Amino acid sequence: MSNDLENEVLEIKKYPDPVLRKKSEAVEVFDEELEKFVKDLFAAMHVHDGVGLAAPQVGVLKKIAVVEYEGKSYVLINPKIIEQKGTQLSEEGCLSFPGIYANVLRPEWVKIEAQNEKGELQTLEAEGFTARAFLHEMDHLNGKVFIDYLSNLKRNAIKKKISKNTGGHF
Ligand code: NI
Description:
It is built from four helices and seven strands. The protein is α+β, with helices and mostly antiparallel strands. The chain has a single domain, classed as Peptide deformylase (Peptide Deformylase), CATH 3.90.45.10. It has a five-stranded antiparallel sheet, sandwiched between helices. Strand 2 and strand 3 form a beta hairpin. The N and C termini lie far apart (37 Å). Nickel (II) ion is lined by residues 94-96, 136, 140. Nickel (II) ion (NI) binds at residues 94-96, 136, 140.
């Protein structure tokens, strides 16, 4: 494989790509390949100005996601929610839904457990926007996307808008 190929930015799958609806499998092997993949996820997220990216969004059905917000980077491998509190309503977008934003209700605070790329188990507490990003990315690992939280009316309006943009896939 040439260096050019290895350094290619991962392609982001756009809704309604069926991979976005599949459930990811737990990561069991923590090796160099995984570390490289995590770096590639961060790189793709940076190229597209995202604050988070999950493996299914690049077509890899593994429980791996990255988040970066206010200068802090988080690697979430096999993440689980331990506790959540409160609610927040705020605008959300997704790299798999370019140009689409909608208000989504989420818990205000979460405590999660996740492994990092070395396999070390960490407990992370987050509130506000960071909590929202963790939960949004964790949803991707379960085949869930942010428009699932909207009313049928709003969701259908978004689907219609996307179908116009892509030439009508549904
Ligand atoms: Ni997303």
